[in-house]
Amino acid sequence: MLYRQLGSSDLKVSEISLGSWLTYGVGVEADKAKACLDRAFDLGINLIDTANVYGRGAAETFLGGALQGRPRDSYVLATKLFGDMGNGDQGLSRAQVFKQIDASLNRLKTDFVDLYQCHRYDVNTPLEETMQALSEIVRAGKARFIGFSEWAPEQIEAALKMAKDAGVEKFVSSQPQYSLLYRRPEKKVIPICAANGVSQIVWSPLAQGVLTGKYAPDSPPPADSRASSDQMGGFIQRLMETPTLEAVQALKPIAAEAGLTLGQFALAWVLREPNVASAIVGASRPEQLDENCGASGAKVDPALFARAEAIVAEASPG
Prior knowledge:
This protein has helices at 30-42, 58-66, 94-108, 127-139, 153-165, 189-194, 242-250, 252-257, 262-271, 286-293, 302-313; strands at 3-5, 12-14, 16-18, 47-49, 76-81, 113-118, 143-148, 171-174, 199-202, 276-281. By secondary structure, the protein is an alpha/beta fold. It has a single domain, classed as NADP-dependent oxidoreductase domain (TIM Barrel), CATH 3.20.20.100. An eight-stranded parallel sheet has the order 3-10-9-8-7-6-5-4. Strands 1-2 form a two-stranded antiparallel sheet. The longest helix has 15 residues, at 94-108. The relative contact order is 0.15.
């Protein structure tokens, strides 16, 4: 496993990180989830990403128990706030920042998180209020660094300007969706971040498993796959169109030329971008992580990546 600097922070994160969206505390049984977490550490993964809204606290609660006994400095723990937690608790107001960080720390059974991220932008709260509140929790030692997920370019620029002009804490990470099938961050987000010491921690680099090639066009999904799961399959349907799946199948020979599985090739493609610090993967079985981590440090001829990009260009939904 190779490691990369996370923006302007002092954190070094594994090129492959373990996420918990739709899986831990929700779609994967606790013993299987614990086996995945243990295998992640065995493989050198040190970045664990979650959010308060995943299972309405269930993912954080699972991780809080499963991480007990591990030295706190042996992993980088990241969580998020913004989503609807019930009872009107949502957003990035000062009150919510303080309430949600304490609730997350309680579920995670820790005194601090290494990275606290704004899950989305809150149009109902002044940016200055959010940034001041985040700065206060960093200075109180409840979070070491701050980041954001899926903010628009102008929102990112405004926050970075505020860090320079108003003395608030500076974001060190961005968490966008990014994959061979979804390249939108390349247009503006990545250039802005690269120029300002902000790294990408990308989600869905395998397009929720579609880029592993396990979904055949015009065929039912495998019984044990995300697409066939009532709990985990709701977000994958837009990727299951026949032209997309046919394009993905056409990538397999290219991955083979690189000496990689298709999933490893797709992860290596994401990691070819220097501004990407880590690619988040989800796992319901430990052996999935064995394969995923094979992408770290992979050397691939850029010409192979270019051929893959051309194949998916017409079929990509993003």
